[in-house]
Amino acid sequence: xxxxxSRPVAAAPPGAGARPDFEIFPVKxxxxxxxxxxxxxxxxxxNSLWALTFFHVAGGGLWTSIDLFVGLxxxxxxxxxxxxxxxxxxxKFMPKMLLLMPTLVAMTLGGGFQLARHEGNLxxxxxxxxxxxxxxxxxxxxxxxxxxxxxxxxxxxLFELKKPQPNxxxxxxxxxxxxxxxxITGLLQVATILIMTFLASR
Amino acid sequence: xxxxxxxxDEIDLRQAELPPVTNLAIVTLALLVSGGxxxxxxxxxxxxxxxxxxxxxxxxxxxxxxxxxxxxxxxFAWGSFFLVGKxxxxxxxxxxxxxxxVFVYDxxxxxxxxxxxxxxxxxxxxxxxxxxYSVARYQPVSPRN
Lengths: 202, 145
Description:
The structure holds two protein chains of two kinds. In chain A, 74% of the residues lie in helices and 0% in strands. By secondary structure, chain A is mostly helical. The longest helix of chain A has 36 residues, at 83-118. Chain B is an all-alpha fold. Chain B has one domain. In chain B, 71% of the residues lie in helices and 0% in strands. The longest helix of chain B has 28 residues, at 78-105. At the A-B interface, helix 1, helix 3, helix 4 and helix 5 of A face helix 2, helix 4 and helix 5 of B.
């Protein structure tokens, strides 16, 4: 991406359009995320098999798809766009990711842990316990990558874009971290799905 | 990419002088996750808590070391740090609260529950600290009040 281009983004070529103003955190989306969290708590406290399966499968499917789509489709396209186009895309896309992804992760992991508990899969005598532990390890690696690298890069890009003269090179470097880590977590998610579908079919 | 090069700016040059808060926060996270995975894998078994206890203890030490390094920073974008930190803290306290609710609701044994609780507290402080630092390190320096 733009790691060789350190010009300020505001110094884009004439006619490229002004840097759009934007909201770092999409406040309008908070009620939706809050409703999902409340629904998750209700699913956990009611131990409803359908609700737990829904939160786990729907959340996991969306989490995986979005990560793969961002890492493997959006990322390469973004890398070939002009800086103003990248900036305009990022100002609209990144705030939504900031709210969407943690919500999907909470849905998937919260629902999944309780589902495993409900179904007795966490018990030591569960015949495929080792596979479940393998999925824990993969999810753990994903959590470290997502919380340690991906989310900080996402936030740092948004704050850089808010500056009167954002640094194009810095945004490029941070977006690279964001896109690569999205792709890696997406691929790790595929491994988790392989294990989960194997366990569900036993 | 074309365009006139302006080279690294003042903020880029300052990066080398900053302490390794990000790296240590990632290590803290990795220790917590390792402890959590170990505990979850051994749930409902009467196993020793020495290994997860050591992992959590190491995570607490790393977090404390990070806080000390941060307090020693004289010139830093503290306004941005606290702005991001307080909102992230709110978000992660909610996430940690939901997880704690799950463990309590599921009647997790007291020894395991207390270790999970320490992990969640460290998690709820460490991630906001990492997010706040990751933003503030690229912001213009502001004097500490």
